[in-house]
Amino acid sequence: MVATYPVILCGGSGTRLWPASRADRPKQFLKLVGDRSSFQDTILRVMDLPGADEIVVVTGKAMVELVERQALELNVKLTVIIEPEARDSAPAIAAAAAYVQSVSPDGVMLMLAADHHIAEPEMFREAALVAIEASRTGLIVTFGVQPTGPATGFGYIKPGEALPGGVNAVAAFVEKPDLDTAKAYIRDGYYWNSGNFAFTARTLLEELALFEPEIRDGALESVAQGRRDGIRLHLDREAFSKTTKKSLDYAVMERTSRAAVASAAFTWSDLGAWDAIWEVSIRDAEGNAATGDIHLINTKNVLARSSGPFVGAIGVEDLLIIAEPDAVLVCRRDDAQAVKTLVDVLKAGGRDIAHRHAIAFSGGVERQPVTSTLEADVQLWRMEAGAVADLPIGTLQVLDGELAGPTQTFATGARLDLPAPVQVRVTAAASILVTIWR
Known about the structure:
Blueprint: E1 4-10, H1 38-46, E2 55-60, H2 64-72, E3 78-83, H3 89-103, E4 108-113, E5 117-118, H4 121-135, E6 140-145, E7 156-163, E8 167-174, H5 179-187, E9 191-200, H6 201-211, H7 213-224, E10 227-229, E11 232-234, H8 237-240, H9 248-253, E12 259-264, E13 268-269, H10 274-280, E14 289-291, E15 294-297, E16 303-306, E17 311-314, E18 319-324, E19 327-332, H11 339-348, E20 360-362, E21 365-372, E22 376-383, E23 388-391, E24 394-404, E25 409-411, E26 415-418, E27 422-437
Parallel strand pairs: 1-2, 1-4, 2-3, 3-11, 6-12, 14-16, 15-17, 16-18
Antiparallel strand pairs: 4-9, 5-13, 6-9, 7-8, 7-9, 8-12, 10-11, 18-19, 20-21, 21-22, 22-27, 23-27, 24-25, 24-26, 24-27
């Protein structure tokens, strides 16, 4: 059996899902629908496919820890390809193809986005098996989702002649339409373009050699000259910088004669904005979807989420209410796309809140601001067992747990002033107050 490599692209910041999704913790790692992130759900859909022995994830350095934590929770064999810089989807996918070809010359790639929601995983698997089999004949197969309505937020695919293996040739890819055009597309049997693909690494690299040789050559060189570090493959920076910044659609799919579409009947969403989250969420009899410390009175068709403060809403309809510890968003559901405009305003004003959460997490340590005065900054650190952290100059109070320093152990109740930074290992999960004096 020819090996199949599920390849998951894990980039982007999901600005339309602000304030929950930001560059430091983007939407694919958030539990927006159900108990797992969309990235984890993507892995679960493909990890048991026939011939799938290894999951390949392409991401940037800033997201590596999130990728590894969430993937390894699922106990999968993993390779993480780390881009030295973001250069759009074609170079990222080309690098994955170069890697797959280096370990399996005839390997099939199942190219998936990390941030999509699919309600029926078994139906996805059926479509994936059709697409994988057809791709072995040299086709580049995309998943065409059967529309449930005339959506204007998706691209569409016009199917052409039937091909062997249960797929169709692609007659045309078309951009996001207006409403009247979308209605016409539905009548004419067009599919939504899901942006997920199946192809052999060899096929993709051949098409890139034809249309975008700089992308192909740069990707091959960046893998060949890359540095392997455990499950991580660091692409060579200089070689990768030679690739052209271009999406796969523009680089290959709109130019190739090998494009095919596999019909998919599963319920699909790209979770592009908060109204899409409301659409796929479980709702009560009044059409409300609530997550967190929420109480709704006489409300209808409201999405309310809180990861921090209590939220109460009375007598409102058709709203999005999203509360984070450091930001609250309220808007009409039909204005969900305008959230990006708000984020752009925050960015233009130099507001850090546009990019980062107030509660930061890295290396097994969550750092939450408590208060800030002219004299000091106070933070609450929650530390996982086994984590290693550098304590700053300041005052430390151990609320619970235990930390081991170079010469002493800090147990529950310890309070001390640190005249110099100290590196500690968390021997038992701990919570500490850190006061940094100005």
